Amino acid sequence: MRLVQISDIHCGPQFQKSKFDKAVEEINSIKPDVLIVTGDLTENGIISEYEDARRNLDRFECEIKVYCSGNHDYKSTGYLLFKRFFESKRVIEFDDLVIVTISTARPDRDEGEIGHRQLVWLQRTLSKYKSKKKIVAMHHHVIPVPDTGTDIITVLDAGDALRTLVYSDVDLVLSGHRHRPWIWRFEGLLAVHAGTLSSERTRGFFANSYNIIQIDDKIKPSLKVVGGESIDFEDLRRKAFEESIKLED
Ligand SMILES: [Fe+2]
Ligand SMILES: [Fe+2]
């Protein structure tokens, strides 16, 4: 099975149509089984941006599309519009896999939160799928990523979230938000973060990108630059680390 994760489309002033067009061409040629969109589909959560986002995302020829909301989508009471334009099933079952989406965005706030009730729901939901691989998708992070400054990028209840994910034997958590592709492995949990597909605002990694996730016996994520190379996440991490420890003259 092949998943493609795209994130942070940001329809609005920062949207780069040429990048998005290229990504549509590339991803349609890959023919993913599932397309997961991890939030910030719009820049300001306003209706014209939602209309653009719907039109744009409809261009992906993938039968199963999964949408998470991002903090930008919830600006300007956009949470009401998100439901109208992108309501999707929160639990998607396959023979040996389940994908669950979590809403971390809150109206007119940049920081994210899962909340106790949603965490209890997540734990109860995942407990029904003990024998399947488990993927949880959300906009904000549960583990910070480097090169992104000091902003709060994890959910406010990241400790509680990690405990639920680890004790529920989640295999993979997918996030977007910080426009910085990265992976971490934590207590058996693989945390994969997507860059931005089509926004001008890249961070730490200065290209638009998306993730291709091959799921067989193992889960193998790789990074694809829009219109460019495929990159092994381990290479990306090593290069970024070497760059970060160079002393300035
Ligand atoms: Fe974003
Ligand atoms: Fe965001």
Would you give an account of this structure?
With 249 residues, the chain is of the alpha/beta class. The chain has one domain (2-244): Metallo-dependent phosphatases (Purple Acid Phosphatase, chain A, domain 2, 4-Layer Sandwich). 27% of the residues lie in helices and 23% in strands. It is built from six helices and twelve strands. It has helices at 17-30, 47-57, 78-86, 116-126, 158-167, 233-244, and strands at 2-6, 34-38, 64-68, 91-93, 97-101, 133-137, 172-175, 182-186, 189-193, 209-215, 219-225, 230-231. The strands form two sheets. Strands 3-2-1-10-11-12 form a six-stranded mixed β-sheet. α2 links the parallel β2 and β3 (64-68). α2 runs parallel beside α3 (78-86) and α4 runs parallel beside α5 (158-167). The N and C termini lie far apart (48 Å). The model has no long low-confidence stretch (mean pLDDT 95). The structure holds fe (ii) ion (2 copies).
Weakly predicted, low-confidence segments: none
* Associated small molecules: fe (ii) ion
The largest beta-sheet arranges its strands as: 3-2-1-10-11-12
Main sheet characteristics:
6 strands, mixed
> Quick one: overall form?
globular
The named CATH superfamily: Metallo-dependent phosphatases
CATH architecture heading: 4-Layer Sandwich
CATH topology: Purple Acid Phosphatase, chain A, domain 2
Give the number of domains. 1
Mean pLDDT: 95
Task: Report Rg.
Answer: 17 Å
The helix/strand order is: EHEHEHEEHEHEEEEEEH
Overall helicity: 25-40%
CATH class: Alpha Beta
The tally of beta strands, per DSSP, is 12
With helices defined by DSSP (H or I, 4 residues minimum), what is the helix count? 6
Terminal CA distance:
48 Å
Strand content: 15-25%
